[in-house]
């Protein structure tokens, strides 16, 4: 499935969102514009603003406010990327050097702060207190998810339950906020607003599960990041947790030691252990379950090309290879 199939139905709106993003990157400080433009121009899938547009238009909301909300969500996401790369000491994202690798940690953090503040400045223009409540709550949950993940670095005793709590906060929450805020902006009936909120949550979890799975299946060229990054940082993701739980004693010990020490010295043996233990199969199956559930959540929505695109997006989330 080509991702263009679900972008195509909102092509014009996407162009408006891009234009808004460029307009709002303006700053009196040249370095702010330079770093902001660098990370925004890297592209990426832009799934979160896409979700805003598809969810809103599935409920017959199609105006400038919907595009503004999509830009708000993208600014929020971009600010978290700048901060995450500093925290994770990442040097590669979307196939090129991270902002912190080019300009250092301090400018990256501060420009991330600028984008975060600008997103709320833009959000005020929507004049919707319910939307502000959703996004303000989401930003708190995202921060909590990142901090929780930080506390579990090199903790080989991390459970699947804690892992799910981490990814629901750090990833799924912004997916959920994207679809939920669009529904609220469209004045959707409670049943439809809740359906889209749940859809975003389930889709976000499926997406992160596949991300963590690809860390042991993909390669740097296709993923646009270094494979094994999570292992190098000592992050206990689900494939590693399942390997320790279901693999042989030798496989479990290998993974446990790698998490506790960090680094990628034994990455290939660990990749093999993750595969042989059935951890990748387990992770893929769970991702499929969440994607299927996301699709089921869309039942209250009227039939339209936008609902179809949301269904296709959920299917793509678990079929992608990068």
From TrEMBL:
Pfam families: polyprenyl_synt. Its cofactor is Mg(2+). Keywords: Magnesium, Metal-binding, Transferase. The keyword Nucleotide-binding does not apply. Belongs to the FPP/GGPP synthase family. This is Polyprenyl synthetase family protein.
């Amino acid at each position: 499935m080509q991702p263009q199939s679900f972008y195509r139905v909102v092509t014009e709106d996407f162009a408006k969102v891009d234009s808004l993003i460029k307009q709002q990157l303006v700053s009196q400080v040249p370095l702010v514009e330079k770093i902001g433009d660098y990370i925004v121009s890297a592209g990426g899938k832009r799934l979160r603003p896409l979700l805003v547009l598809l969810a809103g238009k599935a409920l017959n909301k199609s105006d400038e406010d919907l595009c503004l909300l999509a830009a708000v969500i993208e600014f929020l996401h971009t600010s978290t990327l700048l901060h995450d790369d500093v925290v994770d000491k990442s040097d590669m994202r979307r196939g090129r050097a991270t902002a912190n690798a080019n300009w250092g940690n301090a400018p990256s953090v501060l420009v991330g702060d600028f984008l975060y503040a600008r997103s709320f400045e833009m959000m005020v223009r929507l004049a919707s207190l319910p939307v502000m409540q959703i996004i303000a709550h989401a930003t708190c949950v995202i921060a909590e998810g990142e901090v929780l993940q930080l506390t579990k670095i090199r903790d080989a005793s991390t459970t699947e339950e804690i892992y799910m709590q981490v990814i629901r906060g750090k990833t799924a929450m912004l997916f959920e906020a994207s679809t939920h805020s669009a529904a609220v902006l469209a004045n959707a009936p409670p049943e439809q607003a809740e359906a889209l909120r749940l859809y975003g949550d389930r889709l976000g979890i499926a997406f992160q599960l596949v991300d963590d799975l690809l860390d042991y299946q993909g390669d740097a060229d296709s993923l646009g990041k270094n494979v094994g990054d999570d292992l190098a940082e000592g992050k206990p993701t689900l494939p590693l947790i399942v390997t320790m739980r279901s693999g042989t004693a030798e496989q479990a010990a290998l993974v446990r030691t790698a998490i506790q020490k960090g680094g990628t010295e034994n990455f290939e043996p660990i990749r093999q252990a993750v595969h042989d233990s059935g951890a990748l199969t387990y992770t893929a199956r769970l991702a499929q379950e969440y994607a299927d559930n996301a699709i089921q959540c869309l039942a209250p929505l009227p039939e339209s090309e936008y609902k179809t695109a949301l269904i296709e997006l959920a299917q793509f989330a678990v079929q992608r290879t990068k």
